[in-house]
Amino acid sequence: xxxxxxxxxxxxxxxxxxxxxxxxxxxxxxxxxxxxxxxxxxxxxxxxxxxxxxxxxxxxxxxxxxxxxxxxxxxxxxxxxxxxxxxxxxxxxxxxxxxxxxxxxxxxxxxxxxxxxxxxxxxxxxxxxxxxxxxxxxxxxxxxxxxxxxxxxxxxxxxxxxxxxxxxxxxxxxxxxxxxxxxxxxxxxxxxxxxxxxxxxxxxxxxxxxxxxxxxxxxxxxxxxxxxxxxxxxxxxxxxxxxxxxxxxxxxxxxxxxxxxxxxxxxxxxxxxxxxxxxxxxxxxxxxxxxxxxxxxxxxxxxxxxxxxxxxxxxxxxxxxxxxxxxxxxxxxxxxxxxxxxxxxxxxxxxxxxxxxxxxxxxxxxxxxxxxxxxxxxxxxxxxxx
Length: 386
Known about the structure:
Elements: E1 5-7, E2 17-28, E3 31-32, E4 38-43, E5 46-50, E6 57-61, E7 65-71, E8 80-85, E9 104-109, H1 114-127, H2 142-151, H3 153-201, H4 208-219, H5 235-256, E10 260-262, H6 263-274, H7 281-289, E11 298-302, E12 308-312, H8 317-330, H9 339-346, H10 350-362, E13 366-371, E14 374-379, H11 381-385
Helix pairs in contact: 2-3, 3-4, 5-7, 8-10, 9-10
GO biological process, one term: protein transport to vacuole involved in ubiquitin-dependent protein catabolic process via the multivesicular body sorting pathway
Family: Belongs to the VPS36 family.
Protein name: Vacuolar protein-sorting-associated protein 36
């Protein structure tokens, strides 16, 4: 209670009322006081508490408030605001208590309105209008303000806000640097091609093996001169060139994967190879859809379930079926084959293994058994005997 001081209830120059509440009781720390059932007024500079039976008011300057906490009310208790305060200045007017062992006070709201008052109080403290208004209200001394700003929780919050602002500025600068780097990446690709051409021109001094090795070092990070939308006028032309790039870059990888690769894996691999010139899923899909039309070594295939893959144009579906049936026949007496079993034995993605088993079922080469253990497949002995 030593932070409160006796004052006149009238407003000073530059002071305006923000909100008010009735039925307010004052606490000194956690201890109840005799100041009960009063009217509390919040201005842009201080709080004023007054009882109808008293001619004077109690004032508390907002500059002393370091932290605000809210206590929920219970069955027999009212909601409260807990205000952690810094030390009052020596020049402050006299109050109801000369000194107090507590560094916080409580405001009890008997008639509700605690949350609304807290919001208005936090807004008034954040605006700190008392710093820009000439007033005769006793303020905290400059030395005390400096200590509370640096050592109090309010000072910590301001330091965090300043740090966040600095971080946002650093992120903005980082994105600007990234844009510049993307622009320089095109120049680096062009530079690598020029250097390679110059090395070829001096083939008498540099061996062909050195030329290949040097070029591989320069282009090991991704695709040489990736196709971009800015290079071509129409979307169709862009997708046609992009389809050729996809087929050239992924043909070997698709063959090593057994001739089939999920479209999601195609998207990840091509973007990793292109580096900074990333593609959208829509562009990858449109490019894959025109592969068959362009007679490229890779084409797109869609299973009946909707799963989309890229496969080699010369993929023999009969051999794929034979490989699947070989696994089914081998495990006929072992409780059948699940998608996980086929994926492990053939080195396939789980989704693709399931599609192969479903395709074998559609061709009447396999039958399914659904139980509590999951979905398993067996060779279709009825079809083979018929």
